[in-house]
Amino acid sequence: MSNTKYIGQSVKRVEDKRFITGKGRYTDDIKLVGMTYAAFVRSPYAHAKVLSIESAEALEMPGVVAIFTGDDIKASGIGGVPTGWVINFRNGDTMKEPPHPLLIATSSTAKHIGDPVAVVIAETYAQAVDAAEAVVVDWEDLPAVTDAFKATQDGATLVHDSAPGNLAFDWELGNPISEVDAAIEASAHVTTLDFINQRMVPNAIEPRSYIGHYDEATDKYTLYTSTQNPHLIRLLMCAFVLGIPEHKVRVLGPDVGGGFGSKIFHYTEEALVTWASQKIKRPIKWTETRSEAFMLDAHGRDHVSKAEMGFDAEGNVTALRIKTYANLGAYLSTFGPVVPTFLHGTLLQGLYTTPKIHIELYGVFTHTVAVDAYRGAGRPEATYLLERLMDLAALEMGKDPVELRKRNFIPAFDGVEQPGYQTQVALQYDSGNYHGVLERAVEMLDYGNFRKEQKEAAQNGKLLGVGFSTYIEACGIAPSAVVGALGARAGLYESAQVRVQPTGKVSVFSGSHSHGQGHETTFAQIVADKFGIPMEDVDIVHGDSDAVAFGMGTYGSRSLAVGGSAIVKSIDKVLEKGAKIAAHKLECAADDLEFAEGKWTVKGTDQSISFGDVALTAYIPHVYPEGLEPGMDFSSFYDPANFTYPFGCHIAVVEVDKETGKVRLRRFIAVDDVGNVINPMIVDGQIHGGLAQGIGQALLEGAIYDENGQLTNGSYMDYAMPRADDLPMFEVDRQITPCPHNPLGVKGAGEAGCIGSTPAVVNAVIDALWSGGYQVKDIAMPLTGERVWRAMQNN
Amino acid sequence: MTQITVKVNGKVHSHEVEPRTLLAHYLREQLSLTGTHIGCDTSSCGSCTIHMDGMAVKSCSILAVQADGCEITTIEGLATDGQLHPVQAGFKECHGLQCGFCTTGMIMTAVDLLNQNPDPTESDIRHGLEGNFCRCTGYHNIVRSVQWAAEAMKKEIMVE
Ligand code: FES
Ligand code: FES
């Protein structure tokens, strides 16, 4: 790197100004001329047959422009929303992928609460809602199944007739099961946990919002959407759903108010407003209510698992055996099949040298909304299982959880001098120093003192506990060839265009999409440093499929590792061409030049030419190298060589109230290694946010469907999400082990906090209970006062 | 339809509104003040917080007609003469925002909090903000932003 004025600095964010003054522009803030508003008629049942839909009266109501029902969709031959990943059965049978229609037609069945049958479009939103209430649907209510395990049992109601046993696929990974069975059998100690990783509601604070706009004059469509990946939405919607040519469709993802996974996926409403706007020749806006967000935004997690970890007499892990039922909901969402498989099973090595690992997994349909990636996506589930087992094993064997981990850790390796670490579950880790993060976190905790304090507390009848969690994740998804072999229907690279303007200012067009991550700052820091120009001279453009060549979007902590690397590739091309122009101007060979601090200098002389002058020469090429094209504008696609593997250690300290079971989180320590860091302030912010979500899962959150498939806590009044006074200040530190295979050495920080924190908190509660003599193995999350209290009473 | 007159960010507006129109919708739709956000339908998230006669209120829990004759400040009216309010500056300074969606409501709540309690403890701040959800920041840097603003406002008073 020529210089690092910005890289590594906590530069304040350039995007903040518009947000703190109320000038952000989210989709719902946009008003187009002639815009209409949509409201949906939705199923009040989790499973019900549509006997008839009667909309004639509603159509006559004030302001109503049009009503479309499932029958209209069916008649027009529009396909359903597809999934982006295929996981076939172990016996070779193809994955069950039943259609996911935009609206349910007469004599078809609704398959989860809120499944839509009709859309009403009116002059105002209130009129649309009024008329939607007047659409009469005759339903035949049918029995529903919501639990993944129960859905696979004999006699369970089928969600799709085409999927017997409610299975979309079954899957396994790891060493041969016979070897794993034998290793478990031969173990001196086996720790077993049966548990549920509950269903989470992502709850970005901005509800999803879409505007479909068909322009008759140009025969072009524009879709404004609160999405994490505009190009992917365009691709799925054009090629698979509506069958319209993508060069006629512009997808814009303006400011987006958080995603956490839920805004990756292509939703039926996006296609519907686009399609219907062509029918009525006017723009249509739909913004979901919070109740709709609870019902319809893809949920996360929802695993039922049996996990066993074997140890020899010294405490070395001998084997890991997992059986999991993963709830996929009623339809396969965009990444639905890959989350519990290749984003979960592949992480079961954790940080340990476990020699034998096997996972068997069932992907199950239920009468619930789709389950897909939610911050961490599969990796939190894997970490939860491993780290709960580790702390519980320590308690059961009377060993120290820190020592037990150290004994089993994979030794440090940098991926350059020492090779990457080949796991038993397909992945090869890039670089890691796992002892380092654990030791630093334990030092921050002051472990020795804590154990003393804990003993004293126990003597005074108080329950103090500490919980550890050391995690690894696979980010920067990923080499296209690898994911293709694993069933991805798309490649997972990223694109970036760097356009140097004639005056030396720089526009960068990125296929990554920021919805809170601060790309406009971080990316600009990189570009400014690489070119030796002020950050103010760099503008980052994203979220517009017309402006940006292509993009796979932002999820899986991939923006910097993949999107940032694509930018670096284009920067390198600019510098290479710049050197040729500079050499021509300075009448020397390009090899005689060095680029630093914004200028090319002839080595060993004071002869130089600035970046700006070279840019101008590129556009006004009166004195120009022969055979070189004018202009200074380069596009690149970066396809990573491997995933990146951030890791870290999280420690929670809790106090449990003996009388009420209430858990108070006293401290939370996080030491994360996300590789090189461009903006420490932004990385810390990402960690904080992740921690809150992970802690939220441990202590407060969880979607609850009753046996009829009703979502019983589908509002902010009923679903407990962390508020400011539920959380302490976080104690955050980091270690840096660069990623050896991308040009920035970065690994990704978006999900780390959410992956490590959940088991740390639950482990701390269990530890607190054991300190008081309650030998409780597990409490189902969220660990509310009532659940903890009951566990103590039953012990 | 009912006629209302409100003073918003120093400017008087008169409009006909439907009696069922929420103040949040009136501000967003009729006055195009889209800095006031709507994040829920149960008055739980605080994204829509504004000041009505100097006090922080959730504009989704008030009807536009109830605001008749009132003085309202929204996020757009918080900065004076292009000068950011210390709370706005604090959020930028301490990275108190990520996606920005909760931010405008959060800032309006925090301003009211500091008006009432210029010297809050960490726990005062956490309690004071518990009506506002943020899903991005884990609140850590929001708390620091408000602490930063409290310090800045104290200094301002000392200078005056
Ligand atoms: S929109 Fe007003 S509190 Fe949520
Ligand atoms: S900054 Fe995104 S919800 Fe608070």
Automatic annotation (TrEMBL), chain A:
Cross-referenced SUPFAM superfamilies: CO dehydrogenase molybdoprotein N-domain-like, Molybdenum cofactor-binding domain
Gene3D superfamilies: Aldehyde oxidase/xanthine dehydrogenase, a/b hammerhead, Aldehyde oxidase/xanthine dehydrogenase, molybdopterin binding domain
Sequence ranges assigned to domain Aldehyde oxidase/xanthine dehydrogenase a/b hammerhead in this UniProt record: 21-143
UniProt cross-references to InterPro entries, sorted A to Z: Ald_Oxase/Xan_DH_a/b, Ald_Oxase/Xan_DH_a/b_sf, Ald_Oxase/xanthine_DH-like, AldOxase/xan_DH_MoCoBD1, AldOxase/xan_DH_MoCoBD2, AldOxase/xan_DH_Mopterin-bd_sf
GO molecular function: iron ion binding; oxidoreductase activity
Source organism superkingdom: Bacteria
Keyword Oxidoreductase carried by entry: yes
Protein name, per record: Molybdopterin-dependent oxidoreductase
Automatic annotation (TrEMBL), chain B:
GO molecular function, one term: 2 iron, 2 sulfur cluster binding
UniProt cross-references to Pfam families, sorted A to Z: Fer2 (PF00111), Fer2_2 (PF01799)
InterPro entries: 2Fe-2S-bd, 2Fe-2S-bd_dom_sf, 2Fe-2S_ferredoxin-like_sf, 2Fe-2S_ferredoxin-type, Beta-grasp_dom_sf, Diverse_Oxidoreductases
Domain 2Fe-2S ferredoxin-type: 2-78
Keyword hit for Cytoplasm: no
Domain of life: Bacteria
SUPFAM superfamilies: 2Fe-2S ferredoxin-like, CO dehydrogenase ISP C-domain like
Keyword tags: 2Fe-2S, Iron, Iron-sulfur, Metal-binding, Oxidoreductase
Keyword Metal-binding assigned: yes
PANTHER family, per database record: OXIDOREDUCTASE WITH IRON-SULFUR SUBUNIT
Protein name: 2Fe-2S iron-sulfur cluster binding domain-containing protein
Species: Salmonirosea aquatica
